[in-house]
């Protein structure tokens, strides 16, 4: 068997790892839905809050950067931001450093929702950490 061959245990490890990821994704979707968010909205809020900023003083992220971070098309990101603005979860403002860009920032309501949801996710990740580490060690 060469280094490029896969043994049955490799397939089992890959399947188990993918299963663990799907279970966490399902958990995440259920928790987001429980507070009235879609999975995509939750991911957008988390990205807006957690993405690195060009400057420590920058409020929000550009729609283009959000699209890249979520791995969606820019027009899809614009539609998502429109829905988040409509739901009172984000605000838009012109980028003071570059008037061609629009920055998106969380509202206080979204910040509170995201904090609660992130705490639940952190607890779940801590609970499944041993399983994830064991699965990763299989590789």
UniProtKB/TrEMBL annotation:
It comes from Acidisphaera rubrifaciens HS-AP3. Signal peptide: none annotated. Coiled coil: none annotated. Pfam families: MarR_2 (PF12802). SUPFAM superfamilies: Winged helix' DNA-binding domain. Keywords: DNA-binding, Transcription, Transcription regulation. One of its GO terms (molecular function) is DNA binding. This is Transcriptional regulator MarR. Transmembrane segments: none annotated. It comes from the Bacteria. GO terms for biological process: response to stress. PROSITE patterns: HTH_MARR_1, HTH_MARR_2. Residues 7-139 form the HTH marR-type domain.
């Amino acid at each position: 068997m060469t280094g490029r061959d896969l043994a049955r245990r490799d397939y089992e490890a890959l399947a188990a790892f993918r299963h663990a990821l799907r279970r966490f994704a399902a958990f995440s979707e259920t928790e987001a839905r429980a507070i009235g968010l879609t999975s995509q909205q939750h991911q957008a809020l988390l990205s807006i809050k957690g993405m690195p900023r060009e400057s420590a003083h920058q409020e929000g992220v550009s729609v283009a950067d959000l699209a890249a971070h979520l791995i969606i098309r820019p027009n899809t990101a614009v539609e998502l931001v429109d829905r988040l603005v409509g739901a009172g979860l984000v605000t838009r403002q012109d980028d003071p450093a570059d008037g061609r860009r629009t920055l998106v920032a969380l509202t206080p309501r979204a910040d509170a929702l995201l904090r609660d949801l992130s705490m639940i996710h952190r607890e779940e990740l801590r609970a499944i950490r041993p399983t994830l580490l064991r699965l990763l060690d299989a590789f």
